[in-house]
Design a protein that fits this description.
19% strand, 7-stranded mixed beta sheet, single chain, 39% helix, 14 helices, Rossmann fold
């Protein structure tokens, strides 16, 4: 059995249990490998390291480092030392390191793989990795070495692959888009409402990054020519966030048609979204945005951001509207487009579902792709060769 050592900042552990389920979904779905996980948690302005074994082959690490990538490589050196010593102490011989982000985790995998003489693969997490690379231009040679040394680079969206290939001269043969696993499997038939009911859904504490202000302004603007227009805002947020958003809506005199709804009821995600005209989330920066895919599977056209998120997964004019990042007026134009073209866009989604275009988001398809990547990277076969994931549309 091949041993994969995962280094991730996004694996739920006793230090931070409410992390995204993305990495754990891949680990738990690929039996036939031994998955050893080191889950990283940065503590601001500390200098020590604390490690907790919380399950077989699962270790949570709290390490001290300043924010914003300051002293990044210096403060990660003790983490690399710890992981190497821990592997030796436990008698674990890795066949492959998987860094679940190019920066931070990639620094560790690059060093450890070189010291132990094994290969590594790395995800490219668009938003975060772009920010780190831009912020630490002094580490350009190191970033280049990490990208050149990886056996496979795995961006989660087409725009990320295209941008990194162009910006860093990567060999396209070593770059493979691998999308996140979404919770939803069922594809709902679209329902044409003939109305102007827009919905958005996200962690409300991130409303600035999700550009809620821009969406509110666009709804108010478009309401002048479309008096039926409403916006429902679903999602969780803390008390301060809820008060802030309520104030934003009230200051626009829009409380009667922009509604703060709170968390979606348990088990009501698909049925609730299916009844809206369209989904809109004009984020300023977005690595992927699984909620866009989930909205499409619920039969909703989407307003998303050109050059970010799901851009490039499907043709824009087929699934909705891609607003031009930075052009706030384009958001209102996008809302008008979604409302006016609801029937055609939902007809497109129904046809795509019938043709199996959304099968690429099924857990089994993505897991089969990941298993193939692991098999190729380790030079062995953990299971019969799976069918490759469907090609992405451009």
């Amino acid at each position: 059995m091949k041993t994969i050592v995962h280094i991730s900042c996004d694996f739920p552990d006793p230090i931070v249990s409410a992390k995204t389920q993305g990495v754990i979904s891949f680990v738990d779905s690929t039996a036939g490998f031994r998955h050893v996980v080191y889950s990283l948690n940065r503590a601001n302005w500390r200098s020590n390291l604390v490690a907790l074994d919380f399950a077989p082959d699962r270790t949570a690490i709290a390490y001290g480092a300043p924010p914003k990538g300051l002293m990044l490589e210096t403060r990660l050196a003790p983490v690399a030392d710890y992981i190497r010593a821990d592997l030796a102490k436990k008698g674990i011989a890795p066949d492959l390191f998987h860094a679940h982000k190019l920066t931070v985790e990639g620094l560790l995998a690059h060093r450890l793989a070189g010291e132990l003489g094994v290969p590594y693969i790395a995800n490219i997490w668009g938003d975060t990795d772009i920010k780190f690379i831009a912020a630490r231009k002094d580490m350009a040679a190191k970033w280049r070495a990490i990208m050149q040394g990886a056996q496979r680079l795995l961006p989660c969206a087409p725009w990320t692959a295209e941008r990194f290939i162009a910006d860093h001269g990567l060999d396209p043969a070593r770059v493979e888009v691998m999308m996140p696993i979404v919770k939803q499997e069922e594809v709902l038939p679209p329902v044409v409402t003939g109305e102007a009911r827009i919905v958005t859904l996200f962690n409300l504490d991130q409303h600035k990054r999700k550009n809620l202000k821009g969406l509110l302004d666009a709804v108010v603007e478009q309401r002048r020519s479309e008096p039926r227009l409403t916006l429902d805002i679903w999602g969780r947020g803390d008390a301060n966030t809820l008060c802030d958003i309520d104030t934003m809506i009230a200051s626009r005199n829009a409380l009667d048609y922009i509604r703060l709804k709170g968390p979606l009821p348990q088990g009501a995600f698909e049925s609730t979204l299916n009844g809206y005209t369209a989904f809109a989330m004009p984020t300023l920066r977005e690595t992927f945005g699984m909620v866009f895919v989930e909205a499409l599977l619920c039969g909703l056209p989407v307003l998303h951001t050109r050059g970010w998120g799901i851009d490039g997964v499907y043709p824009d004019d087929t699934i909705g509207y891609a607003w031009e990042h930075g052009d706030q007026a384009d958001i209102a134009k996008g809302l008008a487009y979604l409302i006016a073209n609801e029937a055609r866009l939902k007809g497109n989604l129904a046809a795509m579902a019938g043709e199996g275009a959304f099968d690429r988001h099924k857990r089994a398809v993505i897991v089969a792709q990941y298993r193939r990547i692991l098999d190729e990277a380790t030079g062995g076969a953990s299971a019969p060769q799976p069918v490759a994931a469907p090609a992405l549309a451009h």
